[in-house]
């Protein structure tokens, strides 16, 4: 709860700065969307995302993907896993592994086995050599005590010669 209060306070401070100092850039929008990921500020995160689109911030594909990924992450952390999945399905450009990794992390956090089963292989199809996907899948399967799937994920990673980057696990 303390973390949510801290994030909400950060979010409100940043919004006040934006109001008084003009138009934020695409990085500020991404930071604000991410900061609004707690449930108390989720609606503000949606509004920020809408404003980013309205004011053409993040018009290049990388920043647009980053904004959507932050929104998917925020929805997932707030317990809106199904809404996050619908958001990914509704975007106008090709979805990315990072969006599905955010969704899978939310499935693990919220115990949503149904969505997890449906989307588990999508990031692997989009980014088959991304080591963090295999690590996340292994952790998600372990959280649900699905030990044979944990072994399969690790075996597949080894078979495809995908190397885990040092320190990356701590970021997931």
UniProtKB/TrEMBL annotation:
Source organism, top-level taxon: Eukaryota
Example GO biological process: RNA modification
GO molecular function: RNA binding
Keyword set includes Repeat: yes
Membrane spanning residue stretches: none
Keyword terms: Repeat
Keyword Repeat assigned: yes
InterPro entries: E_motif, PPR_At4g14850-like_plant, PPR_rpt, TPR-like_helical_dom_sf
Pfam families cross-referenced by the UniProt entry: E_motif, PPR
Record-given protein name: Pentatricopeptide repeat-containing protein
